[in-house]
Amino acid sequence: MIEAFKNPSLSRPTPLRIEGDTIFGHFCAWGTPHMAMPNVTPPRSASGYRYFHLSGYQLDDGTEIDVGKITLHTTHAPLRASSEAAAQHYENTGTVAAYVRAGDDAHGGWFCGKLAKGLSDADVESLRAATPSGDWRGYNGRRELIGILAVNVPGFPIERERALVAAGNDQLALVASGLVVNTPADRLRLRVARKALQRRLK
């Protein structure tokens, strides 16, 4: 079973895939601009995703490995929430859909692992239709992934059509969920937020 948690060696940016009880794909692709903040791109982990791999998963032979979780049926934690508060938000409000390892390859940040036991057919259907969205929080001046959510609108999209054709407090946080802007007030708030984030990223 350890093979299910190893680098899947994907040949291109790959959207979430489920095969049997195995789940894999990319949660971000390098150089992809955030849908709401065009000058922001996904950060690489400086720690080997140690702040994401905070849970244990027992393999069939009794060995335990460090994993992170993909969470379903919840929203991103507030941007100004601390890393600990954000993690608690996901623990308390969502459904653990999968246990995965994460890493970096030439295309982006990958994940690979096992679906959680006890998911309903409806949960699996929702997960299969969702897009992974990362939550990065500040650690020692760097942004580190602390969670992956399954959402409808990600900030850093992995294009399904392209993949199919090819195959044939005040911590800096970055959540990869897209923003829906409907009113002039929304657009003004978004411009202000973009400028503030750009200043802090310099």
Q: What would your notes on this structure say?
A:
The chain is globular. A hairpin with a 2-residue loop joins strand 7 (131-139) and strand 8 (142-151). It has helices at 83-93, 121-129, 160-167, 184-201, and strands at 17-19, 22-29, 55-58, 64-72, 95-104, 108-115, 131-139, 142-151, 173-175. It has 4 helices and 9 strands. Strands 1, 2, 3, 4, 5, 6, 7, 8 and 9 form a 9-stranded mixed β-sheet that branches. With 202 residues, it is of the alpha+beta class. Mean pLDDT is 82; it is low at 162-166. The chain has one domain (2-201).
Give a topology summary.
Blueprint: E1 17-19, E2 22-29, E3 55-58, E4 64-72, H1 83-93, E5 95-104, E6 108-115, H2 121-129, E7 131-139, E8 142-151, H3 160-167, E9 173-175, H4 184-201
Parallel strand pairs: 4-8
Antiparallel strand pairs: 1-2, 2-6, 3-4, 4-5, 5-6, 7-8, 7-9
Number of helices: 4
Q: What profile does the largest beta sheet have?
A: 9 strands, mixed
Structural class: alpha+beta
Cα Rg: 17 Å
Which geometry do the CA atoms define? globular
Task: Summarize, please.
This protein has 202 residues and is α+β, with helices and mostly antiparallel strands. The protein contains four helices and nine strands.
List keywords for this structure.
9 strands, 202 residues, 23% helix, alpha+beta, nine-stranded mixed β-sheet, 4 helices
